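Example 3.2
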Amino acid sequence: MERLEQLGYEVIHGSRALFGTELIWGSKGSGVTYKARFFGASQVQPV
């Protein structure tokens, strides 16, 4: 959620993500994955 906060928004408490995915980072075969969640404009509010 750091990116939303950098843009001046936060997710409204209790909102469910529209969808989520795992992002695979293949640098040097480390196998590190990150989870990303996506929210709609009606699910966020200005900080």
